[in-house]
């Protein structure tokens, strides 16, 4: 392959020696790493260079010469150009194995730790699972149509035109193309950049971001679409706080978390359409069961739940312990968590607003002794919290992670600085057919 800086259109042959953390195949060409979209571990492919970088190049598959035995036919017809999924061409068992390998490599390379026990992977329904997300919208005059979808896999600046989505909640997945038809006939077709969707157990909501006020005609069209398809319609003229329902007048979004114990009541959480909720409802239930198993809450326990959000973990834990305190940085989520506690008749859960990426050691909740701690941070992890927590009274920590690198880093801190043992860890397939790795780990001392 040419070593010039220009990108040659001439295909080249490559042997794929690894699967990258983003789901792309990895090859070495003339001593340089090349990430090959659409290629799988062990395959021999013809590839075409797309972009050159100083330390690596990017390419795409033109032809699979020797396929992997784990290659399958993607179910979605938009798979080749939509970035919503990257692993539909890999069988489900191999997807899980790849994610477990990523987690293990991060523990070893970053945290210098290894769990005493690998937990069996958690997985659920692989299709129709996605209950929350954001669709991009673009009116393309040259094509004479409106595009609604996720970003293109090969060029994230562009919107991938899709008619249906196989991983999206069935209340919306088959109807993505109908959204494009709806917007094409609206006056505001050029000033609606995105549509967010969020589903509760009984209702799917669509939030239309609009840069200019909507005409009465457009509002009527949105209402009619919602009525026809049983969808709640929200408008967002500005920031998150501007979101308000258009139809019906008072929609209710909520989901239940089953206790799994006949002696313990289920929990129901209400939420707003832009609130953070776990994308996969089935996996949220499975994750909850595993979290409770690892945390082992006892009637006398005092538990601290950091990055608690709406109380997804806090309230089920509260049913089982003496006291639980949830801490979250977003005021609206904390407010709704407290409301959810009251709505469920839970009086032993308290909530605090605090930016957990700033030093909070002077806060009352941070100075108190806690028997057990639950961590569920965003991608950045919990290293700032671990500068002053946990105290010596804490004997067990369960860490739910959406990013294996930050979990591995924080695991090293807990083991090497706080004297914990990494007892067990494993992956949870929250996002089937993507390279996203959700995981859970138990620490004890």
Automatic annotation (TrEMBL):
Protein name in UniProt: 23S rRNA (uracil(1939)-C(5))-methyltransferase RlmD
UniProt: S-adenosyl-L-methionine binding residues: 278, 307, 312, 328, 355, 376
Gene Ontology molecular function terms on file: 4 iron, 4 sulfur cluster binding; iron ion binding; RNA binding; rRNA (uridine-C5-)-methyltransferase activity
Pfam families: TRAM, tRNA_U5-meth_tr
Domain of life: Bacteria
Name of the coding gene: rlmD
This protein's record includes keyword Methyltransferase: yes
Catalytic activity entry: uridine(1939) in 23S rRNA + S-adenosyl-L-methionine = 5-methyluridine(1939) in 23S rRNA + S-adenosyl-L-homocysteine + H(+)
Source organism: Rhodanobacter glycinis
UniProt-listed SUPFAM superfamilies: Nucleic acid-binding proteins (SSF50249), S-adenosyl-L-methionine-dependent methyltransferases (SSF53335)
Annotated HAMAP family: 23SrRNA_methyltr_RlmD
Group of enzyme by EC: transferase
Keywords: 4Fe-4S, Iron, Iron-sulfur, Metal-binding, Methyltransferase, rRNA processing, S-adenosyl-L-methionine, Transferase
Gene Ontology biological process terms from the UniProt entry: rRNA base methylation
Family affiliation: Belongs to the class I-like SAM-binding methyltransferase superfamily. RNA M5U methyltransferase family. RlmD subfamily.
Task performed by this protein: Catalyzes the formation of 5-methyl-uridine at position 1939 (m5U1939) in 23S rRNA.
PROSITE patterns: SAM_MT_RNA_M5U, TRAM, TRMA_1, TRMA_2
